[in-house]
Amino acid sequence: MKILALQGSPRLRGNTAILLSQFVNGARAAGGDVEVVNLQEQNIHPCDACDMCECGEREFCVYNDSMRGIMKKVRAADALVLATPVWWTGASTLTKIFLDRLYGYKTREYFEGKGIFLITTYFDNHAHTQPLPGADIVGYVIQSVSDFTGMEFLGHLRSAVEGTVLEDTTILDRAFTEGKNFVKVITETK
């Protein structure tokens, strides 16, 4: 079971990375072969809608950057995990640039039939009185991307914290368990 985990936070040791790490540990404990790609460490040029790709009708994008290698990994994977902080009710810039660049690929050839799991983290000091809608908005976007690309959206782990996820053993345990369960679900559908 090959899983590609895309980490969309610029903070490589921040809440998103920590929670993804726990998820990955759980997936590996269940027998998953997981590769983590930190989008911060990649050179991904934003899509500028030049249409040289003819909206995904050609096998290339005019930009020869890290996206080509990432898409090879996507094609080889059985499933994906996308982890992003929520900024201003949306995915991080790194995550959004990755998603926008999918415009230039025949996405069904790369994604169809794969499962995807979403992890979102965000600062919320009003979590109990008036929860912020950002994680739900990002979830809706990934559900839409899943529908368009032929993937199955298999879960969403949300973490609203006032500090660090390391202070919340419940969410860390849940991330580990979700990782294990994700491998089981993917294995059963193959």
Account of the protein in words:
By secondary structure, this protein is of the alpha/beta class. Helices cover about 40% and strands about 20% of the residues. The protein is built from 6 helices and 6 strands; from the N terminus they run E-H-E-H-E-E-H-H-E-H-E-H. The protein has helices at about 15-30, 65-75, 95-100, 105-110, 135-150, 170-190, and strands at about 1-5, 35-40, 80-85, 90, 115-125, 150-160. Strands 1, 2, 3, 4, 5 and 6 form a 6-stranded mixed β-sheet that branches. The chain is globular. The model has no long low-confidence stretch (mean pLDDT about 90).
Helix content: 40-55%
Mean pLDDT: 90
Main sheet properties: 6 strands, mixed
Number of helices: 6
One letter per element, helices H and strands E, the order comes to: EHEHEEHHEHEH
Terminal Cα span: 9 Å
Radius of gyration: 16 Å
Task: Report the structural category.
Answer: alpha/beta
